[in-house]
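Renewal narrative, Specific Aim 1. Our central claim is that a sequence can be written position by position from structural information alone. The example that follows is taken directly from our test logs and has not been curated for this report. It begins with the structure tokens describing the chain, in the order in which they were read.
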């Protein structure tokens, strides 16, 4: 079998947001003039109402916005028509675990947050700190792969995510608690053009495959960062 590690970044501009006022669905595009006024939520293209992210599922058409996402989608396409063995495509949301590099600004927000908290610095969050992300624990990636190897199913295409919306501010608190400290992030406002407001996956297929609910950051932070706290505590004392 082939197991291809793909990514949520392939969904790019095709995240859907449903308006809480009129119910119409927009993509995640935001206008700089709204962001400048501190209106950070995605606004309905029809009535301007605040819109809530809909969990992205595997039927969503890929529409990558940057090179990384495009390269991952290209890898998926390279297996079109490949019939020598089943090709399983796993689209990972943001992955974390014990072996994140916390010291060199590894390009994932959770490594940055954890690195700052470990060093006793309050994370500085853009916008209002209420951006939603969907973090999946590395142990669930392993569980998924083992299940595929053990059960040898026909080819699957699944989102490997927790399906649990977690806001950046909440993530800081979970990580700090796991490290045995307390930390309130600093909300600095401002924005970066092109940042996605929210990111959230539908984990229904994954839940069926592994036979349980994926681990949420609330629980997984303990698995990933509890030892970090021990190391930095003994170093500091
Ligand atoms: Zn609307």
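The sequence written for that structure reads:
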């Amino acid at each position: 079998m082939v197991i291809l590690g793909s990514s949520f970044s392939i969904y790019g501009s095709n995240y859907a947001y449903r308006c809480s006022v009129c119910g119409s669905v927009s993509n995640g595009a935001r206008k700089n003039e709204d962001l400048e006024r501190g209106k950070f939520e995605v606004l309905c293209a029809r009535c301007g109402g605040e819109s809530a992210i809909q969990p992205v599922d595997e039927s969503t058409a890929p529409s990558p916005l940057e090179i990384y996402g495009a390269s991952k989608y290209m890898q998926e396409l390279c297996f079109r028509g490949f019939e020598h063995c089943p090709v399983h495509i796993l689209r990972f949301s943001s992955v974390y675990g014990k072996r994140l590099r916390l010291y060199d600004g590894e390009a994932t927000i959770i490594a940055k947050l954890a690195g700052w908290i470990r060093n006793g610095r309050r994370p500085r969050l853009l916008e209002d700190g209420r951006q939603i992300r969907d973090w999946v624990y590395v142990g669930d990636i392993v569980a998924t792969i083992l299940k595929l190897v053990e059960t040898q199913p026909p080819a699957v295409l699944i989102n490997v995510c927790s399906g649990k919306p977690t806001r950046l501010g909440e993530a800081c608190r979970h990580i700090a608690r796991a490290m045995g400290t307390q930390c309130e992030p600093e909300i600095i406002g401002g924005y970066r053009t092109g940042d996605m407001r929210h990111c959230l996956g539908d984990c229904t297929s994954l839940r069926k495959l592994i036979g349980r609910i994926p681990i949420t950051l609330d629980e997984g932070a303990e698995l990933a960062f509890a030892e970090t706290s021990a190391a930095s505590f003994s170093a500091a004392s």
